[in-house]
């Protein structure tokens, strides 16, 4: 929640850990057993505390916005419900209400001064680099998150009271050493295994299927070959690139841009420049006369106690020399020449040029087309908002997108058929301005219903769209699906053949034939994987299939699904190493202690809820998340 984001480290570690695990626990176990309808504006009731639909909806929308920002794309309400976001938030609010009820029963409270101190001591409310609480920065954070000070203070007060309930359990529950040792052995155990990888190549090419077999397979799996629902979408994209074609750029404008930006169309001339700066102009003149008489520039510098590093400006372009007069003198000299004394910013200087790298410049005619294109886009970008307002005016008058596009001279794109995944009937990805957001919106509306405008990122423009028509999902005929049926049948039969082959090899190994001989007789190589650890993928073993290796005894055999479907791995465990001690004992003990504390807290919360009662209004809950309507 936004409040949690603001607080950052405000709450105690017990509350943090408890609430996170509590949320996950409710997602797994659910609260369906306490759901039953009542009231019209209350989502849930915990003892004497009601959770209003408005409060729940506010929390829900806050979380949905955060999820959208993290995902970098719009998350629809349907997707959020599929993630279980609605139930997760409601379960969290029920947990909070339960703690509030218990705190009230115990007579717990915190003073306003204690809340103020908690906020002032929170480093999250200190401006970057500030040593103490910054009221202005605090108010800025609240405004940026759309929260009033009173709402935040009230939430903090409730949190502090809940912490009193949670912290009453104490910390650091003692963990039996036998449990620590068992966990260490479980986590630290490693195994080695010899294995045979059975791939499609091991079973060879399957014979072509008879049509009767294909038809039988099609009939048995008809639902998987259904044609999905398609929608015809009209899309009006207003982007700088789309408007640029209507803009004009004269040769004079392009030429002026070229002259102003010469450095963008070539490499500037660079010169290796040295300088000696004098505070007395007379000394500079005398040094120049010596150089004219034959003394080298370097000797003059050395006589003044200057090293090469003191005089060398390096290989530089004119713009890189800070003093304009020095730059002008340096770029007027020939190679190996020394200037007369120059009155610069920091004194009178002698300038020497020892090397000249001529620059290169692309002719205007070569880059003209690029300049014209860029200038058209720039003009279109400036005209974008005016054109946006014209489109909105037409829509407000009741014009369709097609009518609007025709009247304003804009291009309307029509996508004849696209499914929910953004693909056409041939399975090809469809390129649509606005991408998945437009597709999701089109499937969430009916033909004739006006949709919201989509703003493309980074001032890229605007997109309007309409659902023109709907092609319902339907069963395909065998003839339509024959190619896909053949591919699926082949995949299924190959998978069966590989499984049969793997089981045959396993049977031979279990019958006493060495695994190396089993591999040799099958024409397959025998390989070794080590060290293998629980929960860690290695070679052909996935994190899931590695469990099979740890389910058999030392020297035992087994078959696991390979990392690449439909591969199978026939393996033999050849070595088991169990650690006698672990350097992670302290970490394991701390983690187990936290888990035990959480178990106690969960039991405590469950007992309170059974005592005071929890009820949830299914109908209001569904309405609050847009999953149903009042009847």
Largest sheet: 5 strands, antiparallel
- The general outline is extended
Q: Total domains, how many?
A: 4
Classified by CATH, the class of the largest domain is Mainly Alpha
Radius of gyration: 38 Å
For this structure, the CATH topology of the largest domain is Triger factor/SurA peptide-binding fold
N-to-C CA distance: 31 Å
Description:
This protein has 631 residues and is α+β, with helices and mostly antiparallel strands. The protein is built from 25 helices and 18 strands. The strands form five sheets. Strands 6, 7, 8, 9 and 10 form a five-stranded antiparallel β-sheet that branches. It has a four-stranded antiparallel β-sheet with strand order 15-3-17-16. Strand 9 and strand 10 form a beta hairpin.
Descriptive labels:
5-stranded antiparallel beta sheet, 4 domains, alpha+beta, Triger factor/SurA peptide-binding fold, 631 residues, disordered N terminus, 25 helices, 4-stranded antiparallel beta sheet
